[in-house]
Write a structure and sequence with these properties.
The structure holds two protein chains of two kinds.
Chain A lengths: L3 E12 L2 E13 L4 E5 L6 H8 L7 E6 L2 E2 L5 H7 L3 E4 L3 H4 L6 H12 L5 H15 L15 H13 L5 E5 L7 H18 L2 E6 L2 H7 L2 E6 L2 E7 H6 L4 H8 L48 E2 L5 E2 L2 H4 L10
Helix pairs in contact in A: 4-5, 4-6, 5-6, 6-7
Chain B lengths: L3 E11 L8 E9 L3 E5 L6 H7 L9 E9 L2 E2 L5 H10 L1 E4 L3 H4 L6 H11 L6 H14 L5 H6 L7 H13 L5 E5 L7 H17 L3 E6 L2 H7 L2 E6 L2 E7 H4 L6 H8 L42 E5 L2 E4 L5 H7 L1
Parallel strand pairs in B: 3-8, 3-9, 6-7, 7-8
Antiparallel strand pairs in B: 1-2, 1-4, 4-5, 9-10, 10-12, 11-12
Helix pairs in contact in B: 4-5, 5-7, 7-8
Chain lengths: 322, 322
Amino acid sequence: MRLLEISAVAKAFRRGRVTVSAVDSVSLSLDAGETLGIIGESGSGKSTLGRLAVGLLVPDTGYVGFDGVDLASISRTELRRLRSDIQVVFQEPFESLDPKMRIIDIVQEPLNIHRRDMSAGERRRHAHETLDRVGLPDALRRNRPAQLSGGEQQRAGIARAIVTGPRLLLLDEPTSSLDLSLRAGILQLLLDLQRERNLAYLFVSHDMSTIEYVSDRVAVMYRGRIVEEGPAQEVVGAPMHPYTRLLMDARLPTDPRRRAATRPDLVPRRPAGDNFCVFYDGCPIAVPQCGTTEISLTRLGDQHSVACLLATGIDAGHSTAS
Amino acid sequence: MSADLVSVQGLSVGYSRRASLAVRDVSMSVAAGEFHGLVGESGSGKSTVARAILGMYARGGGIRGGRVLVDGDDLTRLPARRLRQLRGAKVGYIGQNPFGALHPVISIGDQFEMVRRSHRGVLGREAARSRAASLLEHVGIRDPELVLRGHVHQLSGGMAQRVVIALALYLEPRLIVADEPTTGLDVTVQRQILDLLTGQATRRGMGLLLVTHDLGVVAQYCENVTVLYGGRIMEAGPVRSVLVTPSHPYTEALVAAVPTRGQALRFTAASDHPVIDEGCPFRRRCPRSRPECVTRPPAVTIAAGWQANCHGIDKADMQCVS
């Protein structure tokens, strides 16, 4: 059984009179000790998908199962109990830490809720041990979040997330607000923790190099759909969907000897209808059939799936895309 | 020297009498037609330097030492009226947030008109309008007339930034200062905007000071780079030298911190705050730190036009190499 199983979930938000579909018929799964990277640009629905996966949002339709338990079928009390198994690290550590509380109390708080079986002294000790593990110095633990730097705040956020011994972590852009030289230290900490504790990571980010570095598998989102999913090396190294390719081409290598070539601009087209390609109106290689043929995520390789008519070669008269 | 559009000489900037200096003893220059990257993490002082080139200081801030020459004029001695003429006409500025730069209730067209009038209208009104439209077209706006009649709230972030670029180009300045011009934008839009900006600058023979925390952006677009940390210059020189074989331990750490699949992450642990005093700001995190680092680091010339401020660079070694 997979640790996390998501099947055909959809979530729409109402904005005034308009309903905006944030996530549409998305399925994915995750095993213990594995990292699934979810990459997409703003508005792609990647954060919404992350929140659906950990029960912070309830899907309109579809199934979210954790360890075989349907999150929609259980009571609020049971869901609360599950929270010690499923935790979240947010993008803005400062905004996710109570500004009035001391760091040590913030880290101990989940234990006060989930581990009533431990004595107050044990909970305190365990909170300190967790802070030791994430490398937050003793001297800072009686401080409040505002007195810490961004990197230190994120270490506190990670300590709070792992203190109850969860099995699944949602990491929602955990390093995006950090400076480059601090980012690497936080990524290494997350990788070490995963190995030690067999944690499953759902890693949401817009940053290609981070996603590529941490993920076993990668799902690429565009306008609420997954357009490509597969092993990280394949998706990043040999992308099959034109949108994934565009994302990869937009990366700028830090080695000036490997300057990226100038790319062609997007080709404007009228968007295709609901069940058709979500990238039709921007795709540089689309053919007319792309706007009139239904497309869904189709398995191509062993573990590699793509939602592209041209890549999968269905009824398009092309066997491969350029 | 005379070819320099901007020459910053021993610049120190402080934000209040008591607080320590935000920028200390920074010297750098940008020649006509040169694309120069100014790189640093948050708090490094890179925006302070960029704004000093336009004679702009945040509240309470001001120059505490050194001088800034723009096209031979010393900004510290320039009367306010001359300074206003210089901004926009000689140096164009593009900031991070286009929504903060554009007026919310004045139409885009009227904002172009305001720029023209405040610089005593070199062009007639009609000629100016068509020039604004053609500039908008050059930065990739498909229906310039519609945008000129409209307001900023009708634009996406990428479109609004294109308008800001067009405004910065409007008076044909000889230098553009762009401070994190694409930081809030999606990667695919970032590439388009930077390609446009650098393309227009090349075409018009303008110099460009590109302020960023993104090494990929510098590697792609700049010839030379200045690396700041804790308000001081760590290293400066040709991009092909500094980013490929960095001399300063800080630059080295920065380049190594970019996650690359299959390579171990390298990073500096411990405190993430720079040390602000006479000595090297990086010494607490530096792997090559030595006792004399509490004193002012010497400027070591590695090759022509390439310098690093560091006690740890072995000069004898350097001579052997070169």
